[in-house]
Every structure is written in C-alpha cells, then in structure tokens.
Specification:
- It is elongated, with a radius of gyration of 30 Å.
- A 4-stranded mixed beta sheet has the order 1-2-3-4, sandwiched between helices.
- 42% of the residues lie in helices and 14% in strands.
- The chain has 5 helices and 4 strands; from the N terminus they run ααβββαβαα.
Length: 153
C-alpha cells in the first residue's frame, strides 16, 4: 500500500515520521531566550562626581612607588590621602577574581603596606559606600582632619 502523505500513515508510524521531521535540519531550531546580563552603575564615576560637587579635586591613576607598577585609584590633590575603590565584591559573584583571589589579596596587602610606609593615608571605598554617600563622608572627614592638623602646626 502506498502512502501519499504523512497523514495517511497509521498513528504509530505517523508519530515516528513527525518526530524525524521535527528533528531534521528543515525545522527551525527552538530558540531559548538569552539570560539578561546584569549591568551595574559606574560607581567610580559616581564617586568622582560626588567629590567634584563637594569641591574635592581627585588625581587619577597615580603611580606612587619608584620600583613597582602600583597605581592609586585616586589621590586627593595637595595631600597624601589615597582612595582605593574595592570593586568586584558583589555577593552574587560566583568566582573570585582579581583582588579577591589569594594572590590578589596578598598583592593588595603589600601595596597598602607600601602606602603606609611612604606616609600616605588610605581610604578604601566600595560600591555601597558610594551609593549611600558614606565614601564621600569618609574623604571629607580625612581632608578636614588633615586641614585641622596643618592649622595647629
């Protein structure tokens, strides 16, 4: 018996034929929605804008060590107050990278110790502190305290 169409086949054969057709290259693949990528605000830019609005001048990417390639994220102009932005510490991150790895942490410790030895004060900031305005308050307090010390001397 000849079959003119897939519909003429008995049920069990028709189902097999439909499955083969669906799996064939002629059928467009089922596209899955890509997971949306999360974007985060640029908190370094926000911090820079906060400081500018408060009248605090920041110098960016300042090399402070003679033999190492270390750079400060920020140096408050006319002072030895360094500001380091600690990025990549979101709780949702599955992998530890950069500064949160063991070697990254040890490198940061060496850098921060070299800063202290060279006479710098270090303010470490992070996204939540920038978002809440706490980072700016820390910097303002450090500048005020330094200005008061200079007035006494």
């Amino acid at each position: 018996m000849a079959y003119n169409s897939i519909l003429d086949l008995p049920d069990h054969y028709r189902k097999q034929a439909e499955a083969k057709l669906t799996a064939s290259a002629g059928t467009p693949p089922v596209l899955h929605k890509p997971k949306p990528t999360r974007t985060y605000p640029d908190y370094k830019a926000i911090f820079e804008a906060q400081c500018e609005a408060a009248g605090i001048t920041l110098e960016r990417e300042i090399k402070f060590h003679a033999s190492r390639k270390w750079r400060l994220d920020y140096l408050i102009a006319g002072t030895k107050i360094a500001v380091e932005y600690e990025g990549g510490i979101r709780a949702s991150d599955r992998q530890q990278s950069g500064h949160l790895s063991y070697t990254g942490y040890l490198s940061d410790v060496a850098k921060y110790n070299a800063l202290a030895i060279a006479g710098y004060r270090l303010i470490r900031i992070y996204a939540e502190a920038v978002k809440n305005g706490i980072a700016l308050a820390w910097v303002q307090e450090a500048v005020s305290e330094l200005t008061a010390r200079r007035a006494i001397m």
